[in-house]
Amino acid sequence: MKKIGIMTTGGDCSGLNSVINRVVLGATNRGWQVFGIVDGTDGLCTCPPNVIEMTPATLPVEIARIAGSFLHNGNAHMMNFENAAETGHLTRFNKMLKDSLAALKLDALVLIGGNGSFSLSYKNAAIYSGLSLVCIPKTIDFDIPLTDKTIGFDTAVNELTRYCDQLLLTARSHHRWFVVQTMGRDCGRLALSAGVAVGADAIIVPEIKFNVDDLVRHINRVGRDYGIIMVSEGVTLRGHSGRPADMISRKLSASGIQNRAAFPDYIQRAGDTTAADRILAAKMATCALDAIENRETNVMTALRGNSCVTVPLSEFYAAGDLSRDPNIRELCTSNAYIEPDDPLLDVAIAMNIYIGDIK
Ligand code: F6P
User: Which of 79, 88, 288, 296 has the most CB atoms at less than 10 Å from its CB?
Assistant: First the structure.
């Protein structure tokens, strides 16, 4: 019988619990034991490690549906990677992780995380050398290379769509535009997908330069005095500081366009998990368990078309643009961005959505 551990790391998103649920169902169906590690790697760096056994009978029935993580995502008050790095205790921290994993006698570890956690695991492969490490990609930013989808993205797009659908009614009532700022860090994929879903008249993303005068001209040509302008949080405006939606909103006001900035904020990471994210969770969990069965290690699961495959973490790291992690200064993470040949850009242009100086 195999003993596997499962943990969630990094920012939360909807779908984490679906993955946990699917892993527990699939693993117990194979006759394996599953141990949930509470608070990610932080939970491993306590004595004794914070771990609970999980079975289908002990999992709450609603877990496959609700956002957040049943296992939590880390605890800033405990010993964790960021403060260990800051206080010069990284070597001790890494040793504690390795010792805890060895003490738990796990055969495998399923890590549900984002590009920061994957990059860190790749760099610190020695910590996980005693077991089979399989990573499952989750993030509303969809900034992980080599996978066609990440857990939580579809639900985030849905939440933004619901939010903007409601906003549009106020927009129409008040003859007013809304500049809606999405999350996504420096990747515009969330804003682009949600913008197309909502029928925004403009989508501004960090990957594509834009010009305020062109944006104003576009809005004036739309033939409506209300609508949505979707702006990704990573957008910058030369000579300005502050939140991009506020900056663009001020520019539009100065050009006589009635508008307000709006911030859906953390609801993008919440909301009941969509069916598409739950199906993705089932596919990725099955792929991860197959990988463990086949004794693969240092891999991530990736959606390719309709199927799920495993990809070595070394390929994930080599495929992305490397940049310093915003939370962990010592680390470079591997990032995916909107590529100029992304078919959704052509779709947006065909829908007469302003997306900046692309073609
Ligand atoms: O990476 C997910 C994300 O929600 C980003 O879109 C956002 O910039 C960031 O996390 C916010 O992080 P925090 O929870 O630390 O405010």
Answer: 288
- Counting the structural domains of the chain, the total is 2
Give the CATH number of the domain where residue 93 resides: 3.40.50.450
Give domain status of residue 57, yes or no.
yes
The residue segments making up the domain with residue 125 are: 3-152+273-319
Whether 357 sits among the annotated catalytic residues: the reply is no
203 lines ligand 1 (CB under 6 A): no
Tell me, in angstroms, the distance from the centre of ligand 1 to residue 117's CA. 14
Q: What is the pTM of this model?
A: 0.97
User: Ligand 1 within 6 A of 183 CB?
Assistant: yes
Is residue 227 domain-shared with residue 299, that is, in the same domain? no
CA angle 17, 22, 27 (to 5 degrees): 130
Catalytic residue (choose from 12, 39, 42, 141): 141
The tokens describing 44, both together, are: 């491993």
Ligand 1: atom nearest CA of 190 is 6
Q: Work out the mean pLDDT of the chain and round it to a whole number.
A: 95
Residues 16 and 91 in one domain: yes
Per residue in 184-210, pLDDT (tens digit) is 999 999 999 999 999 999 999 999 999
- Asked if residue 96 and residue 58 are part of one domain, the reply reads yes
From the CA of 10, give the closest atom in ligand 1: 1
Query: 255 CA distance to ligand 1 centroid (A)?
Result: 32
* DSSP code string of 12-70: --TTHHHHHHHHHHHHHHTT-EEEEETTHHHHHTSSS--EEEE-TTTS-GGGGT-SS-T
In short, whether 140's Cβ falls inside 6 Å of ligand 1 is yes
Interatomic CA distance for residues 356 and 153, integer angstroms: 23
